[in-house]
Amino acid sequence: MASSGSGYDLSSSTFSPDGRIFQIEYASKAVENAGTALGLRCRDGIVLCVEKPLVHKMLVSETTGRRIHTVDSHSGVAITGFVSDGRQIVGRARDEAANYLETYGTTIPPEVLTSRISSYVHYFTLHGALRPFGASTLVAAYDPGTKEHSLHMVEPSGVSYEYYGCSAGRGRQSARTEMEKLAINPKQGEGELIDVQEAVKQLAKIIYTLYDESKDKPFELEMSWLCEGSGWRHEGVPKDVIASAVEWAKKEIEEAEEEDDDEMEE
Amino acid sequence: MSLSLQAGGSATRALSSTAPSATTSHTTSPITTGTSVLAIKYRSGVLLAADTLVSYGSMAKYKNARRLLPINSSTLIGGSGEYSDLQSVTELLKRNALEDRCTADSLYNEESNEECAKEVWSYLRAVMYNRRSKMNPLWNDLVVAGFKKNEDGTISDEPFLGLVDKIGTAYEDDILATGFGSYIALPLMREKYRPDMEEGEARALLEDCLRILFYRDCRALNRVQIAKVTRDGKCLVSEPYELDTYWDFKGFVNSKAGLGTDGGW
């Protein structure tokens, strides 16, 4: 890769002459090759969803290598990229949440949690001796004070934004296009927005639409929510709900394909 | 703000105290205290009872302090003694419960492997003994109520009731009382207790004991709470309510002064 960075890519403490930090770009590349992670803010909560590639046939996948983690009673994060890097971020997020509770006696607000995670991730882009995190983090959190829920994403550069729909990993571009079609824009007004039940189905559909059986590794679908129904606690979406969402998604995709075929014949 | 890897954002404060030196002395007597906690097993679970008074010496200072507290979804603790220590113990247990939930193998509650009452009790024993061995005790007698776990980690049908005192002594029993209650209420409870008591009976017994404690214990109050853990793993703590009292007993009304006694009541 000598040509791509031409000497300016050895450390994240040095800019290239055209103002880029290559190490951060490479870290982002690492995320772009990992399983797709999706987050959706709905009327009554937030849904996180990660495609976990099964790297080995004999893997015990249910309890190991999880991508979605609980950080606090009212917040959860989904990670994608280098899972080991992601776990480091998860650990830090838990520390921050616990520290905030200990200091102020209230649950950490979503913006504060996100900015603390951001600062941590950003720190690793400042020193020559450190390597930036090769992981993106989707933060779903509820603020019991304001009674509002929000979704943020922290990228390897340490930058973070709030979203009402976001994605990271391999399928992020097409997933974003698909998510834009859903009724999630807050401008549409409260009543128009989709609920978490519907979001679970739609996210499953997006993941399966992007999946190419002949090309991609088999995967497991991990989903969690933080919603009115779960008492605003971060919990796994019940397995039977995921199963029926997947079934529905597959059927939808099949039907759409049949329609396409019919049109072609005409 | 300087660059730092320390957790806690810009508000980091030193929460840890300075290291004790050889001459450091700790608080070994309480300042703000709650009095008795009573507990009894009944047919379908465990009941706890306590009043809501926290005293500052012999002054009734806080009259609406809760001393029966759920620390996870299926375990209750009741505490007498130093109220600030009780708050600190509760925070500790809640923090542990949250950490258990965050670091569980699964995102699903039914697989969460939450600590059962017996584990909490055993843990508290270690904490209390450790602290007293450093001559820095947590000045509480704690009652832990809930259900035991089966071998496979699921919650069993067997209720659990245990006590840990301020020096780390721990024991289990079907009926327990701390503080003044262990002198006044425990004998009464022993007399009336049956393993198959209905909730109503057990509750009536506890209320009677609390009322008697209110009559005889200067640091007790008739504003009380009752809490229960039931077989389906639910903790319920009642709102504080007031017990009816009857002060017209002859012994309460007639002063013994001038009757050839020492003049007391």
From TrEMBL, chain A:
Known role: The proteasome is a multicatalytic proteinase complex which is characterized by its ability to cleave peptides with Arg, Phe, Tyr, Leu, and Glu adjacent to the leaving group at neutral or slightly basic pH. The proteasome has an ATP-dependent proteolytic activity.
Compartment(s): Cytoplasm; Nucleus
Cross-referenced Gene3D superfamilies: Glutamine Phosphoribosylpyrophosphate, subunit 1, domain 1
Domain of life: Eukaryota
Residue ranges constituting the Proteasome alpha-type subunits domain according to the UniProt record: 8-30
Key words, A-Z: Coiled coil, Cytoplasm, Nucleus, Proteasome
Main location: cytoplasm
InterPro entries: Ntn_hydrolases_N, Proteasome_alpha, Proteasome_alpha-type, Proteasome_asu_N, Proteasome_bsu_CS, Proteasome_sua/b
Classification via SUPFAM superfamilies: N-terminal nucleophile aminohydrolases (Ntn hydrolases)
GO cellular component: a single term: cytoplasm
Protein name: Proteasome subunit alpha type
CDD domains from the UniProt entry: proteasome_alpha_type_3
Keyword Cytoplasm among UniProt keywords: yes
PROSITE patterns in UniProt: PROTEASOME_ALPHA_1, PROTEASOME_ALPHA_2, PROTEASOME_BETA_1
Organism annotation: Cyclotella atomus
Regions annotated as coiled coil: 239-266
Family: Belongs to the peptidase T1A family.
Subunit relationships: The 26S proteasome consists of a 20S proteasome core and two 19S regulatory subunits.
TrEMBL record, chain B:
Any one cellular-component term (Gene Ontology): proteasome core complex, beta-subunit complex
Gene3D superfamilies assigned to the protein according to its UniProt record, in alphabetical order: Glutamine Phosphoribosylpyrophosphate, subunit 1, domain 1 (3.60.20.10)
Comp. bias (Low complexity): 10-30
Membrane-crossing segments per the record: none
InterPro entries noted in UniProt: Ntn_hydrolases_N (IPR029055), Proteasome_beta4 (IPR016295), Proteasome_bsu_CS (IPR016050), Proteasome_sua/b (IPR001353), Proteasome_suB-type (IPR023333)
Region (Disordered): 1-30
Main location class: cytoplasm
Keywords, comma-separated and alphabetical: Cytoplasm, Nucleus, Proteasome
Subcellular location: Cytoplasm; Nucleus
Protein purpose: Non-catalytic component of the proteasome.
Family note: Belongs to the peptidase T1B family.
Identification of the protein by name: Proteasome subunit beta
Organism, as annotated: Cyclotella atomus
Phylogenetic classification of the source organism: Eukaryota, Sar, Stramenopiles, Ochrophyta, Bacillariophyta
